[in-house]
Write a structure and sequence with these properties.
This protein is mainly alpha-helical. Helix content is 72%, strand content 0%.
């Protein structure tokens, strides 16, 4: 299976989780402020790192669901950046939320393909734990940018960091799905 097929398969799995949660909860995440999304991403990435270091889990869910959650919260973050956070009620129907998901996951995927071309699939030689560390680094960068009211001098913005987090999480899912080394 080639990289494109692997990406499509793990993206499909993440989208299915997103769709099912929309069926259960609607777009309840629309009330989240950007800092809350960043904190959700941190919780997920920190749990992955904890499981990687401890080598055991006391909760049945392993690393894969956490990487999928990072993908989905990253997309939610991109949607919130585009629409602005809603402070009191979820305000978009399920079909619109799914269309926005598709739009932003496609942008992240296109970025990955461009970088993959330039970097010649270097991510395949990385350890999954490095993806975790890079995601945590990106989260800390986003927190810093948020603390500066979204302003940067020379660095990429929050959206670029979300896209990188999505792609690192997708790399992790691919490696976990096809049995590559941790």
């Amino acid at each position: 299976m080639n990289t494109s097929q692997q990406f499509e398969q793990v993206i499909h799995s993440c989208r299915e989780i997103f769709r099912k949660k929309l069926d259960d909860y609607g777009a309840s995440w629309r009330i989240m402020r950007p800092s809350s999304i960043t904190d959700q991403l941190f919780i997920k990435a920190n749990r992955i790192r904890s499981l990687e270091m401890k080598k055991e889990s006391r909760i049945e869910e392993g690393i894969k669901p956490e990487f999928a959650a990072i993908v989905n919260y990253g997309v939610i973050g991109l949607i919130q950046l585009a629409l602005g956070s809603c402070t009191d009620m979820p305000d978009i129907p399920v079909d619109e939320a799914l269309a926005l998901y598709d739009k932003y996951i496609t942008q992240a995927k296109e970025l990955m393909y461009a970088k993959n071309h330039d970097y010649d699939e270097a991510w395949r030689s990385m350890r999954i734990s490095s993806y975790t560390d890079m995601i945590l680094t990106k989260i800390h960068r986003v927190k810093q940018i948020e603390n500066h009211d979204g302003q940067t001098s020379v660095s990429e913005g929050i959206d670029a960091n979300y896209m990188d987090m999505i792609n690192y999480a997708l790399f992790g899912l691919i490696k976990l799905e096809w049995g590559e080394e941790l």
